[in-house]
Amino acid sequence: MTKLEDVAEEAGVSASTVSRALSRPDMVSEATRTRVLDAAERLGYRHNQAARALVTGRTGLLAFSVPSLANPYYAPVIAGAQAAAEEAGCELIVVVTDGSAEREQALYARLSERVDGFAAAAPVSAGTQLSQVARKRPLVTLNRRVRGVSSVVVDTPAGMGALGGHLAGLGHRRIAYLGGPDGSWLDPRRLSALREAVPDCEVAALGPYPPEFEAGVRAADAVLDTGCTAVIAYSSTLLIGLLHRLTLLGKSAPHDLSLACADDLSASGLAMPEVTALHVPAAEAGRRAVQRLLETVTSGPTAATHQLLPVELLTRASTGRPAA
After folding, report:
1. Burial class of residue 296 in the structure, from the number of CB atoms within 10 Å of its CB (0-12 exposed, 13-18 middle, 19+ buried)
2. Which terms are listed as keywords in the entry (predicted)?
3. Residue 237 burial (CB < 10 Å; 0-12/13-18/19+)?
4. Is the pTM of this model over 0.85?
């Protein structure tokens, strides 16, 4: 069985340096840490997490909570978070809250003594509850701002303004917005930004809808009842369901209805047809949330920071001028 001393000899450093590189990477240079990790990998050495916890008070485990694994938006978010954790020599536990504040709080309580901190994607718990969690364990929120808690927010509200401006520029004056999910902190901000960007247009707010294909199918009749000539959905999965139902009804985009989305379908492999959308840096958001969490875990309590990540408007074939 490979021992810590074997790794030290392979890396050409002392055993204490190996221990610091694995348990307290902030105490060694990046070059030394890389040399130690490379040696450990070559020899198949696995550091004892329990021993590290006894020495440092940290487990090397981080928890990342998401509302759902069915929503393809979270796949790149989790990938980015995982990459950031691995680069720091930590392990990431992904937990699913089902969009329930009660389940979210139960997960925090159950894992609080087992992990070094939490990153929470779109948490739905009350701000006071999240602040209480942050006082016990480091917490970073993704796509949610809470006073005193660090956050990373993708600026989809600004993107909604750009989408609205694009549609208004094509001549649309009645736009439907498929919003949700229920309890979302970002959703009312998206709707408000859309309305502010198109003051001369009528915006019909429909929903809230869960980010599900079936919800998009159900939304189709409501959209047609509005008489709108363009639709913006907050979720790519929701939009695909809407498109499916419209196709069955003999409707096409953009001839009968222009379609747009607040996240990029191509990132989920769902670009059929090519839909005007916002390119959302989902992987970067997950990475930054975990990086900020690790900074808090390592340095201790610090002033909360709030990072805002820009989005990019991608205009494609699904939007055009309204039918005469």
Report:
1. buried
2. DNA-binding, Transcription, Transcription regulation
3. buried
4. no
